[in-house]
Design goal:
By secondary structure, the chain is mostly beta strands. About 5% of the residues lie in helices and about 40% in strands. The protein binds alpha-D-galactopyranose (GLA).
């Protein structure tokens, strides 16, 4: 109890107003890209983004770097709302799927841009045993548990902690306290997520967490990317390289069987760059699989590189996580209308969800997701943008 109080108190102390975060500035006049480079410093702005049905005010943060790369993040679900990235001619397009306003995120949607927790991905039969105690979770994906349950981290209002810019980077940090037994998970978890945009065109997403009772934790960001511009078409022409020789095969419920299989000679092989669509028809339902990264996790290491030929945009991902879920928007079916009135059809976005492996709490041979009191959980994923 004392520990729990201490954890919450320390977090509450860090929750201050947002120094350095400016209220939205008036629109810049049109200037050439060369002049723009000199003229725009790293900047961070905030503006209102609406109100939740229970009356909580939600904010939208805008981080911009000198190349014009712009990330918008809301503290509702710590969601990445948009990401404007230059193409090979310097033209900016929003390359993530999502909604123009808070309403879209409050309705049911497939985790567009969301921070997913406490457990990103699936837990088989929605249960696990820890220290001899059986924990039952919501079965929100047939008989299995998916992405933290019915009210996961993606539906929490996160507390703004800081929003700042210096000469090298601009960032927004937010925190969330997930209470003991929330969605059936043990322990109070104090968690932060920080989105940092650097002057070198990197978007870093880093997480920190602590618990007061032995628990499990697996966090990811669930952005859907289309490097040609959101809502402009499918992602089947994107060329993907994954730094993974192995993956975790799944059963019909998309729960890993426990086997770690080599990708060689199969449509799962992205060890050298291949278009996502080249073999997708050979994969039942499309790609929705966890790859075992060659790095093994721990230190920040290469995870993936994606190239989109028409725009020339390249996204390179490094992560400290041991796995990544390649999901090719298989369940998008045209029923959702997103930003700028664009309709999201099948395969209109791909996700590369850096993570620990699905169902790890029930797979003793997979890297552990157990978090102990006194341990500090950290995880970082860096998306670097360039053109070719
Ligand atoms: C994850 C899962 C998919 C799907 C999406 C959300 O990526 O692996 O099966 O549930 O989230 O629609």
């Amino acid at each position: 109890m004392k520990k729990r109080f201490c954890l919450i108190y320390v977090l509450a102390l860090t929750v201050v107003y947002m120094p350095g975060c400016k209220k939205r500035a008036p629109k810049e006049p049109e200037i050439t890209p060369e002049v723009k480079k000199e003229a725009i410093p790293m900047s961070a702005n905030e503006e209102p983004f609406g109100q939740t049905p229970d009356g909580r005010q939600v904010v939208l943060y805008t981080l911009t770097n000198p190349s014009g790369l712009t990330a918008r993040i809301t503290n509702y679900g710590a969601i990445l709302v948009s990401l404007e990235v230059p193409d090979r001619t310097g033209r900016l397009d929003d390359i993530t799927l999502g909604f123009d306003s808070l309403d879209g995120y409050i309705k049911v949607h497939p985790y567009f841009g969301a921070t997913v927790g406490r457990y990103a991905n699936r837990i088989g039969k929605a249960q696990f045993t820890l220290d001899g105690v059986l924990y039952k979770l919501a079965a929100n994906n047939d008989e299995n548990h998916l992405h933290g349950g019915t009210k996961g981290f993606d539906k929490a209002v996160w507390k703004p902690v800081e929003c700042q810019a210096d000469s090298q980077k601009t960032w927004v940090k937010m925190s969330y306290i997930s209470e003991d037994d929330e969605e059936g998970y043990p322990g109070n978890i104090a968690c932060t997520v920080t989105y940092t945009l650097t002057k070198d065109n990197e978007l870093k997403i880093s997480y920190e967490a602590e618990t007061d009772k032995t628990t499990i934790l697996n966090l990811t960001n669930h952005s859907y990317f289309n490097l040609a511009g959101q809502g402009t078409g499918d992602i089947l022409d994107h060329e993907l390289m994954l730094n993974a020789d192995k993956y975790t095969p799944v059963d019909e419920g998309l729960i890993p069987t426990g086997e770690i299989r080599n990708v060689t000679g199969s449509p799962m092989d992205f060890t050298s760059s291949m278009s996502i669509g080249s073999r997708i028809k050979q994969v039942e339902g499309g790609y929705d699989h966890n790859y075992v990264l060659n790095s093994g996790g721990g230190a920040l290491a290469l995870c993936a590189e994606v190239y989109e030929p028409s725009s020339g945009r390249v996204m390179t991902i490094h992560t400290t996580e041991p796995g990544v879920q390649l999901y090719t928007g298989n369940f998008l079916d045209g029923t959702l209308t997103g930003k700028s009135g664009r309709v999201y059809n099948k395969h209109y976005g791909f996700c590369l969800e850096t993570q620990h492996f699905p169902d790890s709490p029930n797979k003793p041979d997979f890297p552990t997701v157990v978090l102990l009191p006194g341990q500090k959980f950290t995880s970082e994923t860096v998306h670097k943008f360039s053109t070719r």
